[in-house]
Design a protein that fits this description.
With about 210 residues, the protein is of the alpha/beta class. It has a single domain (about 10-205), classed as TIM Barrel (Alpha-Beta Barrel). It contains 9 helices and 8 strands. The chain has helices spanning about 20-30, 45-60, 70-75, 90-95, 110-115, 145-150, 170-175, 185, 190-205, and strands at about 10-15, 35, 65, 80-85, 100-105, 125, 155-160, 180. Strands 1-2-3-4-5-6-7-8 form an 8-stranded parallel beta barrel, surrounded by 5 helices.
């Protein structure tokens, strides 16, 4: 199993036609964990994209996660699954995928985070810190919730919601260490340069704090 402690830049991306060039570029730029997060396309199309992504990630030594669906993860030999509060329970996913799978769990409130600590999830997410189009209808939970959450566990807590090269340094100085990024890379005209800018800002901030 991959260790996630030092994997700090987590890309969530939906299906896209240029995945064969986009994904290697952002990994070269500094992304070190990847999730296929596709809520709308049929299983067969997701499978084809997931196979491509799984192969690229395996070749480049980066964990590949699929959203919601452990059966898809099994079929494409993904490293794990990320589930939300309304998806299959972590215990069910663990039974399906086994002890070595990476399982992540989303949280959006203090009580959800407390319950998540009693699961076998390898990592948790906290957010979105601020409202984001990738999670329509969900209000931002605020920075304090994310910071407090990271202080309650030794497991990685990936912060979601509007992470950019401009604000990631401030998040690090607030005590956060692991970040989910979506639009800053998926909407970038030059994904390689955008990923490098994010990674450089992250590494620079980390160099000034105690980890």
């Amino acid at each position: 199993m991959f260790s996630l402690d030092q994997r700090r830049l987590y890309l969530c991306v939906g299906m896209r036609e240029d995945m064969d060039s986009f994904l290697p570029a952002v990994i070269e730029g500094g992304v070190d964990i990847v999730q296929l997060r596709e809520k709308f396309q049929p299983f067969s199309q997701q499978r084809d994209t997931a196979i491509l992504m799984s192969t690229i990630c395996a070749d480049l030594g980066v964990p590949f996660i699929v959203n919601d669906d452990p059966h898809l993860a099994l079929e494409v030999k993904a490293d794990g699954v990320h589930v939300g509060q309304d998806d299959l329970a972590v215990s069910v996913v663990r039974d399906l995928l086994g002890p070595d799978a990476i399982i992540g769990l989303s949280t959006h409130a203090t009580n959800e985070f407390a319950l998540a600590l009693d699961t076998s999830a390898n990592y948790l997410s906290a957010g979105p810190v601020s409202a984001t189009p990738t999670k329509p209808g969900r209000e931002g939970v605020g920075l304090d919730y994310a910071v407090h959450s990271t202080q309650r566990t030794d497991r990685p807590v990936y912060v979601t919601g509007g992470v950019t090269a401009a604000n990631i340094g401030g998040y690090v100085r607030s005590g956060l260490r692991h970040f989910v990024v979506v639009r800053a890379l998926t909407e970038a005209p030059d994904p390689l340069s955008a990923a490098r800018a994010l990674r450089e800002a992250l590494d620079q901030a980390l160099s000034t704090v105690t980890i």
